From TrEMBL:
Gene3D superfamilies: Beta Polymerase, domain 2. Keywords: Antibiotic resistance, ATP-binding, Nucleotide-binding, Nucleotidyltransferase, Transferase. Residues 31-97 form the Polymerase nucleotidyl transferase domain. Residues 158-249 form the Adenylyltransferase AadA C-terminal domain. GO terms for molecular function: adenylyltransferase activity; ATP binding. One of its GO terms (biological process) is response to antibiotic. This is Spectinomycin 9-adenylyltransferase.
Amino acid sequence: MGFNWQTCPMNVKEFVLYLNEKIGDILQGNLVGFYVHGSLAMGGFNPYHSDIDILVVTEVSISVDVKRQLTEVCLVGSNNPFPVEVSVLTKHQLDNWQHPSPFEFHYSEFWRERYEQELANGTNNYINEHVHTDPDLAAHLTITFHRGICIEGKPIHDVFPNVPREDYVSSIIGDYEDCLENVEQDPVYCILNMLRVFMYVKDGIISSKEEAGRWGMTILPEGLIPTVEKAAANYANDTEMYSFNREELIIIRDYIKDCVTQYRKGGVK
């Protein structure tokens, strides 16, 4: 079983509080709040392979120099010991919600190499004054609004909008469609993520991957349950305990795809 913020090991809390302190020092009086979402908020955090998802809200836009300082903190902190994903938005961007949402700064391990080169070379190809948009933010904000944790600052419902359902679905469907294509390459992530989408379009429940796996074991046909059990067991441990064959992956993918399509079209309830 995964951890949440209340039950996680002390080194996880210390790491989050360290990031909160470092980012707060950089932003100083511009910080509205520091919030945790994702698996650590929802109870599916696994120290062996989960990342820590963070949203930071500022009063006003941040300078390029501040973005560089945030990049340095993330490069040092991320993967030491846990990978982090951090997005920074202003209060104005939240109050004037649009999808895909603009943002001030973003870090994930996907960007590490480019950011390292950027700082080493003194260039501004990636860290600059341009405002970009991210369709994933609709999902991150929805999870934060409903299940997030406020580490410092104003309460969540005083800061974050209740993102429209159609924006949330739009946000999660891109990753879902990638999972339909890549289930053979990454079965654990894809099975559990497809189930999260299925759970939402069917029951309107925002869930962690761990919760979606448990739900799938109660709702899917009996023949598909062993596949979900294997995915859930692999996700809950630090090593791969079970393997999958191509046939079972295609069968569960096609079943979930058909169900999601039906519910999105307003079909069988």
